[in-house]
Amino acid sequence: MKPLRLLLLLALCPVLANAAECHYFWTTDCFEIRDPRTRDITHHVLLSEQRFSFEAGDPAQCPAELDEHLTIDQRGKVLRAFNKRLKKLPGCRQLETLTPEVFADEGEASEEWQRLATERNFKSLHLIRRLPD
Question: 8: exposed, middle or buried (C-beta count within 10 Å: 0-12, 13-18, 19+)?
Fold first, then answer.
């Protein structure tokens, strides 16, 4: 029995070696232009409060596997949450679709999320909470 387990483990090693953890988050933005002559503009950035992850067979396939991972119901809940916030922001339009930002590298996902989450003088951050993963 033990040689069979070892053979099975050796057969699975290439598959396991290619397995990867993919990372994603949801984001969109819009601009509230109050007076373009004086550049009185606010950049509204909507961002999921957290980053999500899932296992994929191949890091290069993260976007395709995420499409399979997310259900229509999950996508609908995310879209409704973002549109609920967008409706309250002057100058922002509601979305018909929303595509997640997907990364094969956790560090890259974290850096991009942090960059988007950093507030600036002209930028207003809106974290969207309690999203399905």
Answer: exposed
